[in-house]
């Protein structure tokens, strides 16, 4: 499969300067399979039998007369129905005509992918220190904010009750775990 690198695209653009002028079109007669532009025949799509053509010399009018003619013969390898040959001619003409626009589109898409990858990198917070690296994606950040909000709401309710009817051990454990995790996310190391 082709790797659509910038080098390949540049090489392809140079090759496009060397081909017959576009657009190309397939003949619509349905009998010849010819591909042409405004002034030149570019190619003829195979229709019917195909193989290796070679000349032979045949005597004309019997062997005594000494007259011969050259006739083309063929070692036939296959047969392509005329309608398939015409479809191939149409496909080749359209593909070649659209090729420069496809190259432009590939470049636009590659540029857009690079832009989106840059945005994606900006949306992920990467904190690293020594051998530690921790990536926070959007979903993880939203979950962390939600848990922090839940803890703040719990703290507010405890304060509202003046600390009465509170399971202080469970509250302490939940708060300690959340604070330790957030400390590690922010500073890249465990809290000491």
Summarize the structure.
This protein is α+β, with helices and mostly antiparallel strands. Helix content is 50%, strand content 24%.
Written overview of the protein:
The chain is built from 4 helices and 7 strands. It is of the alpha+beta class. The chain folds into 2 domains: 6-48 and 78-123, no CATH class; 127-187. The longest helix has 42 residues, at 82-123. It is rod-shaped and about 130 Å long.
Largest sheet: 3 strands, antiparallel
Strand order of the largest sheet: 1-2-3
Question: How much of the residues is beta strand, in percent?
Answer: 15-25%
List segments where confidence is low: pLDDT < 50 over at least 5 consecutive residues. 127-132
H-E order: HEEEEEHEEHH
Radius of gyration: 37 Å
* CA distance, first residue to last residue: 54 Å
Secondary structure: number of strands: 7
Number of helices: 4
Q: What is the overall silhouette?
A: rod-shaped
Summarize the topology.
Elements: H1 6-16, E1 25-26, E2 34-36, E3 41-44, E4 48-60, E5 67-80, H2 82-123, E6 125-129, E7 132-136, H3 138-160, H4 168-187
Antiparallel strand pairs: 1-2, 2-3, 4-5, 6-7
């Amino acid at each position: 499969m082709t790797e659509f690198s910038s080098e390949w695209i540049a090489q392809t653009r140079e090759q496009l300067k060397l081909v017959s002028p576009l657009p190309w079109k397939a003949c619509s007669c349905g009998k010849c399979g010819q591909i042409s532009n405004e002034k030149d025949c570019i190619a003829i799509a195979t229709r019917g039998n195909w193989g290796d053509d070679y000349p032979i010399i045949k005597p004309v009018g019997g062997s005594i007369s000494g007259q011969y003619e050259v006739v083309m013969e063929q070692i036939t390898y296959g047969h392509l129905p005329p309608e398939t040959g015409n479809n191939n001619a149409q496909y080749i003409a359209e593909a070649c005509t659209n090729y420069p626009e496809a190259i432009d589109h590939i470049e636009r898409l590659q540029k857009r992918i690079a832009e989106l990858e840059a945005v994606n990198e900006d949306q992920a917070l990467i904190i690293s220190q020594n051998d530690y690296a921790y990536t926070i994606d959007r979903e993880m950040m939203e979950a962390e904010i939600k848990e922090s909000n839940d803890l703040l709401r719990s703290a507010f309710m405890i304060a509202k009750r003046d600390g009465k009817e509170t399971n202080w051990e469970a509250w302490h454990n939940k708060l300690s775990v959340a604070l330790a995790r957030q400390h590690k996310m922010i500073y890249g190391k465990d809290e000491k």
